[in-house]
Write a structure and sequence with these properties.
The complex is a heterodimer of chains A (about 90) and B (about 260). Chain A is mostly helical. Chain A contains three helices and no strands. The chains are: A mainly alpha (about 90), B mainly alpha (about 260).
């Protein structure tokens, strides 16, 4: 239902040329479409397969490794951008 | 994947992978070693107050940026496209097993792209020390992305203890990890010398051209030792293969 309402809203806003509002609604609509697709797939495969059938082996260290690097990487990029924005026009 | 419409009767999937992978490997390894090449030459140019050499580094950076970021980026996407069409199950397994490995690699790749663009667009406009620092950051990030991809790629060749314990780190630090890292590091440095020859060939001033050609020759020759050491190590976990490749051939060849 939400998808239908959002689709109608996106069409209405699009025809009335509200670019930003249409984009925002389209983004929400896209998220609803992803969820619906997943729901359809899960229901369709329910007699043969459910996610609970998969054996899960928890392993957190690669995720921590990534998160640490992610934060450090963002800080590094921020530092480089600051240096780039601060630099003068011509330096010896 | 031949069903339903993916039919590759003439060349086969292996040919397509080889074609895209070889081209991409040349450029992507150049992207790693080239960072060290640029920053070392820039440092040398400042030290010697050599404006000709500095001008060469600037021009080579443009060539480097276009080749690695545009061509290297496109062929990188091309590899994913081809492997996911030819063997979706294997591609899916590689993503699922190493999802955070890939994510970490993309962090370095992103930092690498930002560093290279800043390095190129602030050439001559940024304080020398800071500009060299950006160059070093580029090289370190590029090498780290090689480090991470190396673990994932070599897992395909030698999964090692992962087969028993399915542990991320067992798969990542697999039996060919360190020798392959040594080999790839050597290859990346050799290739930056090779591509240096290409751009140096267009320098009009003879003395400068000869000087840069000499520098490039050292870059090709010295890191080759790393390639030999790494190459020898890669074949160790596969004694049967190395026997076939290196030991039997001379015995079977008739004396010349």
């Amino acid at each position: 239902m939400l998808g239908l309402v959002l689709a109608g809203a996106a069409l209405f806003l699009g025809y009335n040329r509200y670019l930003l509002k249409t984009s925002a609604v389209a983004l929400l609509l896209l998220m609803v479409m992803v969820l619906i697709r997943d729901l359809v797939r899960t229901t369709y495969l329910a007699p043969y397969f459910t996610l609970e059938d998969l054996q899960v082996k928890a392993e957190y260290s690669p995720m921590i490794f990534f998160l640490v690097l992610f934060v450090a990487g963002l800080a590094l990029v921020g530092y480089m951008l600051k240096m780039a924005l601060d630099c003068g026009k011509e330096v010896k | 994947m031949n069903y339903p419409v993916w039919e590759l009767s003439t060349f086969g999937g292996g040919f397509l992978i080889a074609l895209i992978a070889i081209v991409h490997v040349l450029v992507s390894h150049f992207a790693v070693g080239g960072g060290l090449f640029l920053v070392s030459l820039e440092r040398r140019a400042y030290k010697e107050e050599n404006s000709g050499l500095l001008e060469y580094v600037k021009k080579h950076t443009k060539f480097f940026l276009l080749l690695t970021m545009v061509f290297g980026g496109l062929t990188g996407v091309g590899i994913w496209w081809i492997i996911s069409l030819l063997n979706p199950a294997a591609t899916s397994a590689l993503i699922h097993i190493f999802v955070f490995g890939w994510a970490a690699e993309w962090v370095f790749f992103f930092a690498e792209i930002v560093a290279l663009f800043i390095y190129f667009y602030t050439f001559g406009k940024m304080e020398r020390k800071k500009h060299l620092l950006i160059g070093w950051i580029y090289f370190i990030c590029a090498w780290m992305s090689l480090f991470l991809i190396n673990g994932i790629i070599d897992f395909m060749l030698s999964p090692g203890a992962w087969l028993e314990n399915q542990n991320f780190w067992s798969g990542f630090f697999n039996p060919t990890f360190w020798p392959a890292l040594t080999f790839r590091t050597g290859l990346s440095l050799v290739l930056c010398g090779v591509f240096g020859f290409v751009t140096a060939a267009f320098i009009k001033e003879k003395a400068l051209r000869t000087n840069i050609m000499h520098i490039c020759a050292k870059w090709v020759a010295i890191p080759f030792v790393l390639m030999l050491a790494g190459g020898g190590g890669i074949s160790k976990p596969f004694p049967a293969v190395s026997t076939i490749l290196f030991s039997n051939i001379p015995l079977k060849c008739p004396p010349i």
